[in-house]
Design goal:
This is Phosphoglycerate kinase. The protein is of the alpha/beta class. It has 14 helices and 17 strands. The protein is 36% helix and 17% strand. Helix 10 runs parallel beside helix 11. The longest helix is centred in the N-terminal third of the chain and has 15 residues. Bound molecules: adenosine monophosphate.
């Protein structure tokens, strides 16, 4: 999968429509976390240093297809202004003659931030004439919004068929890291998959089972796996509809010679509560009236040994109810084990990222994927429309 490198292009004097993910949290008209904006700055700086004129567009929240003041990009504009040295202006419109004029009035090195793309329902509908209107704002299209690449919207897909299209630095990094992981991992390749439900991870498990050497399972989903092997799980989280799928995954791992591990001991609680009565059980099975809340010390040891010898690691989903301190150890220890290993490590999913931060080891991780749904779909083996349209352009 080859993506065009924007570093190699001449963008001097060109108007570029840069699709970003500035979908940041806003409270009382103020941006409370600027991480997503900051992550796009390298792409913005590179393009400006090349003498480009930038028209920047993003979605923010979930407006219902029309303008809603609480989803205006105005607060984002104010936060963004403080983060860049470039001259930025904001226009309270997305498309139309006024926006086209403003884009044409830009000098090299200047930025125009447009209003929330989702103030037009045509954005999510990927409607043709809206795509054309967006395309009128620029000569070149660059997408740096990996988090929105699993959606075929006008600004993530449609416009790429009209203008020369490229991936931004952030987008390319995500694709190269995630793509490299599943296409040509250095072995042993270890996937650690946790989180609450088998149902939301079943597709990724099915895709990974053909690619990994070790599959370590934790979190609430582990109990459906245990139950599928007739292990008593008390009142732990259980998805009856996925019991047979879990059974089949264990079988498939056996047939293919993959080391699939499920927890052999647990931290259990009498109820789902931070102050619940809790204890460690040195067995696979859980008694009636108790629920599994975290992996136990033997499981941590065993998982840590596998992680230590890994050359490639993918982690998605916590090992226990890590939001509650009593049940955070398994997740934190896995984060620490990953940070100590010499493997190339990729961590995705909001909870695993939070755990990496809680363990204070974010700087030891090769790549923290911010893609959310997009990275999960990518790892499930799906073609992301927002990526496919960039690759097709390159080859075509
Ligand atoms: P997910 O969004 O599917 O990655 O799941 C993350 C959630 O799984 C977190 O909020 C955890 O609290 C929850 N979780 C992890 N382990 C367990 C468990 N043993 N029982 C119930 N929920 C769990």
């Amino acid at each position: 999968m080859k993506l065009p490198r924007i570093e190699d292009q001449n963008f001097h004097g060109k108007r570029i429509f840069l699709r970003v993910d500035f979908n940041v949290p806003v409270e009382d008209g103020k941006v409370t976390d600027t991480t997503r904006i900051e992550k796009t700055l390298p792409t913005i700086d590179l393009l400006l240093s090349k003498g480009a004129k930038l028209v920047i567009g993003s979605h923010l929240g979930r407006p219902k297809g029309g303008p809603e003041p609480k989803y205006s990009m105005k607060p984002v504009y104010e936060a963004f202004q403080k983060l860049t040295k470039a001259k930025v202006s904001f226009i309270e419109k997305v498309v139309g003659s006024e926006v086209v004029s403003a884009s044409k009035a830009l000098a090299e090195g200047e930025i125009l931030l447009i209003e929330n793309l989702r103030f037009h329902k045509e954005e999510e509908e990927n409607e043709k004439s809206f795509c054309k209107q967006l395309a009128e704002l620029a000569d070149v299209y660059i997408n740096d919004a990996f988090g929105a690449a699993h959606r075929a919207h006008a600004s993530t897909e449609g416009i790429a068929h009209i203008l020369p299209a490229f991936a931004g630095l952030l987008m390319r990094k995500e694709i190269e890291m995630l793509g490299g992981l599943v296409m040509r991992p250095e072995r042993p390749f270890v996937a650690i998959i946790g989180g609450s439900k088998v149902s939301s991870k079943i597709a990724i498990l099915k895709n990974l089972i053909d690619k990994v050497d070790h599959l370590l399972i934790g979190g609430g989903m582990a109990y459906t796996f245990l139950r599928s092997r007739a292990v008593p799980i008390g009142k732990s989280l259980f998805e009856k509809d996925f019991e047979s799928e879990a059974f089949q995954i264990i079988d498939r791992a056996g047939v293919q010679g993959i080391d699939l591990q499920i927890p052999v001991d647990h931290i259990i609680a009498d109820q789902f509560d931070a102050n619940a009565k809790s204890k460690t059980v040195d067995k696979m099975g859980i008694l009636d009236g108790w629920m599994g809340m975290d992996i136990g010390p033997k499981t941590i040891d065993s998982y840590a040994k596998v992680i230590k010898n890994a050359k490639t690691i993918l982690w998605n989903g916590p090992m226990g109810v890590f939001e509650m301190d009593k049940f955070a150890k398994g997740t934190i220890e896995v984060a620490k084990a990953i940070s100590k290993s010499k493997a190339k490590s990729v961590v995705g999913g909001g909870d695993s990222i939070a755990a990496i931060n809680k363990a204070g080891v974010a700087d030891k991780i090769t790549h923290i994927s911010t893609g959310g749904g997009a990275s999960l779909e990518f790892l499930e083996g799906k073609t992301l429309p927002g990526v496919a349209c960039l690759i097709a352009k390159e080859e075509g």
